[in-house]
Amino acid sequence: MDTQPTPDQPWDRTVLCTTCGVEHDPDALPGTCAICADDRQWVPADGQRWTTVGALRAGGARVQPAPLEPGLWALPVSGGAGIGQHAKLLTTPAGNLLVDVPAHIDRAAVEAVAGLGGLAGIIASHPHMYGVQSDWSEAFDGVPVYVSAPDAAWLARRPGNLALWSGTIEPLPGVTASQPGGHFPGSVVVHYTAEDGRGVLLAGDTVGVARDRAWTTFMRSFPNYLPLSGRVALRIADHLDRYDYDRLYDNFTGCITAEARAVVHRSAQRHADWAEGRCDHLT
Ligand SMILES: [Zn+2]
Ligand SMILES: [Zn+2]
């Protein structure tokens, strides 16, 4: 069992912010993590804390791959840093894409991903989800790390194989990524057609699934309850119309299991109705 730090794992020395779980260059460590100081996140009441992958692993952190549906896995981390995101691993005949990145890496998880066919690329939906993307890339022969050019200033550590992009890309055949923006100016969604022939959208924090799973939301900050405007919510729904999608997975465990495009549209309209004051008579 992989229970003790061993010196042969280069990622052990990787420094990351304990709160957001994003990797940082140890030679350029700021006093406070810029991602957490931003109005979309928060700095703990007792101040900024940094940790390392090795320290987290010694403390019991684990990546725990779990199947979501055929061809799609979640990679949540237990006992580690970060905000509890569920990175996704999309497996395709042409190779696999890591969509959002765990805030941890360990040998068992690398072996599990290798057993599923390895990685052909890594793409985070937005800077909160960079995790330890440099290490995941290096663990798989330096596969490209696709980063939205509009958000590149948020990189606190530069991946060795950084691929900046804007607009739309196809990181794998049949897999499309585009940038509706919203939560961040370069926020990314990933679309593909699943084995059952239905379209699937991996939405990151661009579209959040509400607790009432008949609805979604559109937020600048989820922890700080800061909504996007009605106009931007409608813009996101319109952007996503380029895709045929039936299911939608958000950044955590939220999933719209059917007719997701219609759900997103009616949710954007509801969001706009409230944000623009057309429901003020109910308050
Ligand atoms: Zn942080
Ligand atoms: Zn976010």
For the residues shown, what is the average pLDDT? 96
Q: Which structural class is indicated by helix and strand composition?
A: alpha+beta
Give the termini separation: 57 Å
Name of the CATH first level: Alpha Beta
| Number of separate helices | 6
Number of strands: 22
CATH structural fold name:
Metallo-beta-lactamase, Chain A
Q: Order of strands in the sheet with the most strands? A: 5-6-8-9-10-11-12
Give the second-level CATH assignment, the architecture: 4-Layer Sandwich
Bound molecules: zinc ion
Low-confidence stretches: none
Total discrete domains? 1
Helix content: 10-25%
What is the H/E order?
EEHEHEEEEEEHEHEEEEEEEEEEHEEH
Radius of gyration over all CA atoms, rounded:
18 Å
CATH homologous superfamily, by name? Ribonuclease Z/Hydroxyacylglutathione hydrolase-like
Concise overview:
19% of the residues lie in helices and 26% in strands.
What does this structure look like?
The chain has 283 residues and is of the alpha+beta class. It has one domain (10-43, 63-282): Ribonuclease Z/Hydroxyacylglutathione hydrolase-like (Metallo-beta-lactamase, Chain A), CATH 3.60.15. The protein is built from six helices and 22 strands. The strands form six sheets. The chain has a seven-stranded mixed sheet with strand order 5-6-8-9-10-11-12. Strands 13-14-15-16-21-22 form a six-stranded mixed sheet. Strand 15 (189-193) and strand 16 (199-202) form a beta hairpin. It is globular, with a radius of gyration of 18 Å. The mean pLDDT is 96. The protein binds zinc ion (ZN) (2 copies). Residues 126, 128, 183, 205 line the site of one zinc ion (ZN).
